[in-house]
Specification:
The chain is mainly alpha-helical. Helices cover 62% and strands 5% of the residues. The protein folds into two domains: 210 residues, Neutral Protease, domain 2, CATH 1.10.390; 38 residues. The protein contains twelve helices and three strands. The protein is globular, with a radius of gyration of 20 Å.
Amino acid sequence: MRGSHIACLAVVSCLALPGCGGTAFMLPPVTDHEALVAAKEIEAADPTLPKFSRSDAYYREAIRRLGVQLTAGVAAVCARADTEECRFMFHYVDDDEVNAFADEGGDIYLHRGMLEYLETDEEIAAVMAHEMSHQIADHVYETRSSVLLGAVLGGLLMGGIAAVGGAPPEATEDWTTMGMQHGARAGQLAFSKEQEREADLLAAYVLARADFDLERAGRTFEVLAKLNGVATSSWNDTHPAGAERVVAWRKAVAEVEASPDKLPNIAAD
């Protein structure tokens, strides 16, 4: 299916989803020019991407210790976000996948492949706080609901087109399946980049309330920018490009430092 058709499904999915107009906590947008300038700065400063391999015992203890520190002051952020799910369980995953993710129920998984690129406690804590923020903002539930609805809408749309066009039952079934697959992808894209930006912003507040150095934590986003290797993102990306996140993080830090209570402000409607 052509990309334009998937984009149409994304629009249909978004229109059908309550609250698809945006997230609760937002920063000013990052321009392409800002992202390109940041990408050049990162490359010029240090083009290498070193790894800091440590033992599994080191990572398990670091995650345990940092988790205690991060969760000690997070309740106020959860209250501001009006979430009742404010408990977090951190899990170390001993494999090479460069990944970290949050699952339902507050389970957060950190893969060794991601941690090995992080040098300091602040950088590891930044990843943990980002995943905590997905939970705080209820992104896991939102994404699964969006994917499910997108699949249903995509199946109905493509199956209906095939049926109206006089396709035989077998072909209609194939079109319905195709529509469900692309509709699910469209449903995911309807929210994903906004969710990532919101999680980065909330993470800055979570880290600040836990007394972490936000500037040192920000190196995490430079690491992600080098891993990503793209200055700006497209509509088909699930995450903002790494350089975009670096600029957004700087804006998040400025907002946190200007906040008298170290709590995020609800975005204006």
